[in-house]
C-alpha cells in the first residue's frame, strides 16, 4: 500500500491535519502510527478506507488507486477495528461477525461456517458464543469479536484504531499476543494507531512516529528507532529507560524457559510435597488434566490431605505466551508475588516459567550490545 502526497484540510482550518504524507506500507506487515494527541494519526488512517475523504493526494492498494473507488466497496475490502470493538448491541455475536459476508451476499451456509471458523480463530467456543449479545461478553471478548468481524471477509488490509485501548493491561497483553499469532498465519497488511509506544514496539514490523500535520519524523523498525532515534522528538517519545524498552523487543519464546515444580489435580499432596522438596522448591504449580495451569500451592498448603482433589483456577494467576515480550513478563511478575511467570503454549498448556534472573540477564546483555555501536561512533569522531 502506498500513500502519495496525502493531505487533509478540514473545513475552516488554517493548518492541514495531515500535510502531504507519503509512505509505503509493505504488504503483510504491521505498521504502527504513533505520535502526540491531535497529530493526525486517526485522520491518516481513516483516509485509507475513506471514512475521511482526502483533500489531495492518492492512496494505492496493490496497483489500484482507491481514492476514486466506490467507498462502500472499498470499506468492505478493508477490515476495521476500533477501540471498544464497536459491535452492534442488538445483533448477536454471529450476526456481528457475519455482517460483511452478508453484505457481500454470501449464502447463509457459508456465512454460518465462516462465523464459527472466526470464533475458533479468536479462541472463543462457537457453541457458547455465537448466539450471545455483545453486552453478555467481557471487554476482552468483545474486542476479540471486533477482530473476528474485521477478518470475516478475509480482507487483505486491516485498519486498527487503538483497538486495545479500552481493556485492562493484562487483557491487552493477551489480545496483543493473540493478534501476533494470528498475523503469523494470516500476513495481513495492518495499519495500527496507538498512543502506547510499548505497544508500537511490540506489535510493529515498522513504526511511523508522527508529529503535528502527520509529519513523519521517523519511519523504521522498532529496533532501529530504539537504537538510533532520529531526533530529540523521537527520543522524548521513547522516554527514559531505553534498556527497559528494549525488553519489549525480546519475546518470551527467545529466552530459555525453566521448569517449575508441577503436580496435577487429583494427585496425592504428600507425594507432591516430597517431589517439591527433592528439587529444593517451596511452591508447586497445579495443572489440570489438560496440563493447564490452575494455581500455585505452597508446601504448607500441601500438608492438607486431599488438597489436590479439586483445585479451582486462581483468577489472579497471570500467564504469558511465547509471543509476549519480556516487558509483559516483567509486568506480570511485578504484580504477582512470584519471582517467576508461567508460560503457556497452544490450548493454554503449561510450557515452563520465566525467572526474574532471565529478565535481568536479558536487560544487561541489551545494555552491553546497545552501548557497543555508539561507543564506536564516538571513537571515530
Ligand atoms: N472532523 C474534524 N473537523 C475538524 N477538525 C478535525 C476533525 N477531526 C480531527 N480534526 C483535527 O485534526 C487534527 C488531527 O486529528 P486526529 O484525530 O487525526 O489526530 P490523532 O493523532 O488521531 O489524535 P488522538 O491521538 O488525540 O486521537 C486535530 O487537530 C483535530 O482537532
Task: Tell me what you see in this structure.
It is a single chain. The protein is of the alpha/beta class and 381 residues long. It has two domains: 2-239, 3-Layer(aba) Sandwich (Rossmann fold), CATH 3.40.50; 254-360, CBS-domain. Helices cover 38% and strands 22% of the residues. It contains 15 helices and 16 strands. The protein has helices at 41-48, 71-76, 93-97, 99-103, 108-121, 126-129, 139-151, 169-186, 197-203, 222-227, 232-238, 242-246, 269-278, 326-335, 356-380; strands at residues 2-8, 18-24, 30-34, 56-61, 64-65, 78-82, 157-161, 189-193, 206-211, 215-220, 262-264, 283-287, 293-298, 319-321, 340-344, 350-355. Strands 6-7-8-3-9-10 form a six-stranded mixed sheet, with helices on both faces. The chain has a four-stranded antiparallel sheet with strand order 2-1-4-5, covered by helices on one side. Strands 11-12-13 form a three-stranded mixed sheet. α8 (169-186) links the parallel β7 (157-161) and β8. α5 crosses α7 (139-151). The longest helix is centred in the C-terminal third of the chain and has 25 residues, at 356-380. It is globular and about 75 Å long. Residues 370-381 have low confidence and may be disordered. The structure holds adenosine-5'-triphosphate. Residues 10, 13, 17, 35, 37-43 line the site of adenosine-5'-triphosphate.
Amino acid at each position: 500500500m502506498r500513500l502519495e502526497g496525502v493531505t487533509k484540510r478540514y473545513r475552516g482550518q488554517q493548518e492541514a491535519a495531515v500535510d502531504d504524507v507519503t509512505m509505503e506500507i509493505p504488504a503483510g506487515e504491521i505498521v504502527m502510527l504513533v505520535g502526540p494527541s491531535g497529530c493526525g494519526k486517526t485522520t491518516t488512517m481513516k483516509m485509507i478506507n475513506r471514512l475521511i475523504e482526502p483533500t489531495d493526494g492518492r492512496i494505492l492498494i496493490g496497483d489500484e488507486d482507491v481514492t476514486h473507488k466506490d467507498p462502500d466497496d472499498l470499506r468492505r475490502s478493508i477490515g476495521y477495528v476500533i477501540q471498544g470493538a464497536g459491535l452492534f448491541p442488538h445483533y448477536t455475536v454471529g450476526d456481528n461477525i457475519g455482517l460483511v459476508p452478508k453484505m457481500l451476499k454470501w449464502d447463509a451456509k457459508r456465512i454460518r461456517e465462516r462465523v464459527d471458523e472466526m470464533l475458533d480463530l479468536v479462541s472463543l467456543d462457537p457453541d457458547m458464543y455465537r448466539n450471545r449479545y455483545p453486552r453478555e461478553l467481557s471487554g476482552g471478548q468483545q474486542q476479540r469479536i471486533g477482530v473476528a468481524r474485521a477478518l470475516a471477509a478475509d480482507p487483505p488490509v486491516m485498519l486498527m484504531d487503538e483497538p486495545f485501548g479500552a481493556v485492562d493491561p493484562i487483557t491487552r497483553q493477551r489480545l496483543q499476543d493473540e493478534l501476533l499469532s494470528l498475523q503469523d498465519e494470516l500476513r495481513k497488511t495492518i495499519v495500527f494507531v496507538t498512543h502506547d509506544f510499548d505497544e508500537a514496539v511490540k506489535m510493529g514490523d515498522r513504526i511511523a512516529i508522527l508529529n503535528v500535520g502527520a509529519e513523519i519524523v521517523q519511519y523504521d523498525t522498532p529496533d532501529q528507532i530504539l537504537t538510533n532515534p532520529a531526533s530529540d522528538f523521537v527520543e522524548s517519545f521513547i522516554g527514559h529507560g531505553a534498556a527497559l524498552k528494549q525488553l519489549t523487543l525480546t519475546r518470551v519464546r527467545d529466552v530459555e524457559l525453566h521448569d517449575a515444580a508441577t503436580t496435577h489435580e487429583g494427585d496425592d499432596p504428600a507425594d507432591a510435597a516430597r517431589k517439591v522438596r527433592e528439587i529444593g522448591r517451596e511452591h508447586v504449580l497445579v495443572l489440570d488434566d489438560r496440563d493447564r495451569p490452575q494455581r500455585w500451592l505452597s508446601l504448607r498448603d500441601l500438608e492438607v490431605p486431599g488438597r489436590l482433589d479439586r483445585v479451582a483456577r486462581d483468577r489472579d494467576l497471570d500467564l504469558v505466551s511465547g509471543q509476549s515480550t519480556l516487558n509483559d513478563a516483567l509486568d506480570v511478575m511485578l504484580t504477582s508475588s512470584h519471582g517467576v511467570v508461567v508460560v503457556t503454549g497452544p490450548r493454554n498448556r503449561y510450557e515452563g516459567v520465566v525467572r526474574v534472573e532471565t529478565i535481568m540477564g536479558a536487560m544487561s546483555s541489551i545494555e552491553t550490545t546497545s552501548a557497543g555501536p555508539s561507543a564506536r561512533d564516538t571513537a571515530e569522531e
